[in-house]
Amino acid sequence: MRKKILLLFPAVALGVLLDCFYNPTYSNAGGAPSARCGDPAGGFSTCAACHTGSAVVSKPGWITSDIPGTGYVPGSTYNLTATVSFSGRSKFGFEVSAQKSNGTASGTLVLVNTSETQLKGSGKYITHTSGGNTGANSRSWTFQWKAPGPGAGALTFYAAFVAANNSGSNKGDNVYTSTLAVQEQITAISETGTETACTVFPVPARDAVFIRYNGTGSVTNAALYDIGGNLVREPEELSGKGECTAVFPLDRSLPAGIYFLVLQQEEKRITRKVIISGE
Q1: Residues 6+ apart with CB under 8 A from 279
Q2: What angle do CA 84, 89, 91 make, to 5 degrees?
Q3: Confidence category of residue 14, pLDDT binned at 50, 70, 90
Q4: Looking at domain 24-182, what is its CATH homologous superfamily?
Q5: Is 240 a residue whose pLDDT tops 70?
Q6: pTM reported for the whole predicted model
Q7: Which residues, at least 6 apart from 9, have a Cβ–Cβ distance to it below 8 Å?
Q8: Does residue 259 contact residue 215 with C-beta atoms inside 8 Å?
Q9: Coil, helix or strand for 11?
Q10: What's the CATH superfamily of 198-276?
Q11: According to DSSP H, which parts of the chain are helical?
């Protein structure tokens, strides 16, 4: 009897390994592995690591939210929806992660329906469950996201989707990606940062504002806000590597007064006061 058991175990183990290798469509029916949503932390890997059929296609707008255009309020909770569609398909999957450009998780993903979605990777990723992978031509998943504390800055929701052909193999499936970039809402602005390498000119300004920054690190975003924290201008030109130069053209409809230019680096924000004249 002992010899039969010893001989049987390798056969069972081999069968499990072969099933996972040749049938990844079914092995991932209960959720995608972590780091498969085209995110920086995962080396930009997608579901195409297992599913094959066609080239990965980027689909703008497949992840949506109720985060306002002015940006997220630190500590607030928002609703997000991830949607995939493919006519004639009935099996779908997804994965989403909210990350900084360096791959650090930002904010907290929150489950709304535990029978259809689950968290993986210590909460860094949200994906489908075996009870949430079916649909007629499309599938949507809804979840929530609690924004990080003040100063977190810009982040991106990275998403990957699969429209499986339900053939019992990993062949013939379609993989898609989508992203949603959001900014932190600035509700109270004051001049910050001590970098002497950051220069704003002319003073006062009327037709355009220029900013030059040749400090360390790359600038990922720049914007002009009024004193109440409302976005009023984005740069017409922005070169973020090496010496950063941003150009903000102005028009005469912009009231004279005090404004703030905000430069965003990965984990740092530099703010400079701008005076716009009425002449």
Answers
A1: 206
A2: 70
A3: very low
A4: Immunoglobulins (2.60.40.10)
A5: no
A6: 0.64
A7: none
A8: no
A9: helix
A10: Immunoglobulins (2.60.40.10)
A11: 2-22, 24-27
- The pLDDT of residue 194 is above 70: no
**Torsion sign across C-alpha atoms 188, 189, 190, 192:** positive
Q: Is the pLDDT of residue 126 over 80?
A: yes
Smallest Cα–Cα separation from 169: which of 18, 29, 72, 26? 26
Average pLDDT, the chain: 82
Per-residue model confidence (pLDDT) at position 19: 33
CA nearest to 193, candidates 151, 232, 225: 151
From CA 247, how far away is CA 26, in angstroms rounded? 52
Strand arrangement of the beta sheet that strand 269-276 belongs to: 231-233, 221-226, 257-264, 269-276
User: Which strands, in side-by-side order, build the sheet including 138-146?
Assistant: 63-65, 77-85, 138-146, 108-110
| pLDDT the model gives residue 25 | 41
Q: Are strands 269-276 and 138-146 parallel, antiparallel or unpaired?
A: unpaired
Residue range(s) of every CATH 2.60.40.10 domain in the chain:
24-182, 198-276
Main-chain dihedrals φ then ψ at residue 254, nearest 5 degrees: -80, 120
**Residue type for position 81:** T
Rounded Cα gap, residues 196 and 184, in angstroms = 25
> At residue 236, does pLDDT exceed 70?
yes
Are 155 and 107 in contact by the 8 Å Cβ rule? The answer is yes
